[in-house]
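Bumping my old thread because nobody answered last time. Still need a sequence for this structure:
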């Protein structure tokens, strides 16, 4: 069931002034759905009570690796089944983890009805900055659940691994593009 409260109450509860909350409402940037009644009162609707519904997300970095998507999604399905969770939505995406230009991920993260997003590895979500995404989701009682979190915890070592991965992706990404051009030329001849 959804809870409703006036904008002023919601602002106090979240440590904001009414003016800031009103500005967020007018700009359409409130983190929760809200409506203005004919009387002028603004009601903020709470999120639905947490359920065991999850949205699965997996990604590969290039079209050459599309076959990996199904295997990765199956591992996520196995995880949620073993934990008694129910899949609400499955999203597969091809896009680099080095930038934020992944429309499907942005759509999931901006949908307030999606409360839990299991991902196989942290770098499947984002190569850099996944901690920020997780922190932002946690502040709204949403969760990004990394199911295989056997990564190195030493920040310096992890930073070096991420930087080397980034450089390799740039290098091999260019080579992959060259290979696609060569294959296209051969197909035309």
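Sorry it took so long. Here it is:
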């Amino acid at each position: 069931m959804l809870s409703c409260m006036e904008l002023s109450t919601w602002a106090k509860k979240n440590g904001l002034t009414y003016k800031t909350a009103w500005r967020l409402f007018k700009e359409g940037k409130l983190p929760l759905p809200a409506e203005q009644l004919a009387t002028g009162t603004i009601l903020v609707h709470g999120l639905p009570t947490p359920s065991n519904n999850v949205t699965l997300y997996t990604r590969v970095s290039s079209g050459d690796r599309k076959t990996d998507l199904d295997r990765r999604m199956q591992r996520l399905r196995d995880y949620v089944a073993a934990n008694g969770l129910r899949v609400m939505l499955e999203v597969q995406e091809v896009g680099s983890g080095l930038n934020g230009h992944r429309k499907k991920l942005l759509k999931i993260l901006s949908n307030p009805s999606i409360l839990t997003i299991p991902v196989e590895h942290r770098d499947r979500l984002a190569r850099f900055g996944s901690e920020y995404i997780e922190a932002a989701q946690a502040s709204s009682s949403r969760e990004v659940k990394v199911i295989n979190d056997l990564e190195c915890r030493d920040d310096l070592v992890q930073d070096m691994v991420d930087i080397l991965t980034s450089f390799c992706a740039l290098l091999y990404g260019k080579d992959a593009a060259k290979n696609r051009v060569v294959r296209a030329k051969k197909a035309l001849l």
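The two ends are 63 Å apart (CA to CA). Let me know if any region looks off to you.
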